[in-house]
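[#protein-structures] MJ: dropping NADH-quinone oxidoreductase subunit J here for a structure pass
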Amino acid sequence: MTFSGELLAFMSLALVAVIGGVLLLNLSKVVHMVVALVFTFLSIAGLYVMLSAEFIAAVQVLIYSGAITIIMLFGIMLTRHDDTSEPEEGKWRKLFLFLGVLGFAFAVYIGIYNLEIKSAQNVVPSTLHENNTEQIGIALFSEFVIPFELTSVLLLVALIGSIILAKKDDEEEANKE
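AK: finished. structure tokens for NADH-quinone oxidoreductase subunit J:
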């Protein structure tokens, strides 16, 4: 087995993503969890770059690593939280969780192994990685224009709903005083 630069880059990015996910689940401070989540998002963006999906990688960095993380931090800072600790998890729950993760990893491995066997028999077209941003734009604004517009309306409704809920909380707060 020879180690190429691509394999080393993949293993490094995958390791950072997995470690970030594990830290996200095991850290106790929420801000530290968000930082671990940022590392996971950035490593996933690196994996997208390795797949020649530069547009998706840029969207991953801008939307997830940037916007979603900032929204989570603002949500943490602007909300009241009561510091109630949860009871310790049992050993059986951790064992079942570990077995579930192993089962999922095995299923992914089998899926990838079967994909490698099938792809060795079929030739993949060489135009797959050419102009992928242009192909996404053409598909998005021609074939998927209605779902795209419905998504924008859904996001607008969610924004208006969050403003109404925040205003209602302010009114309740004013009525209590």
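MJ: nice. The domain at 1-80 is CATH 1.20.120.1200 (Four Helix Bundle (Hemerythrin (Met), subunit A)).
AK: one more thing. The chain has a mean pLDDT of 81.
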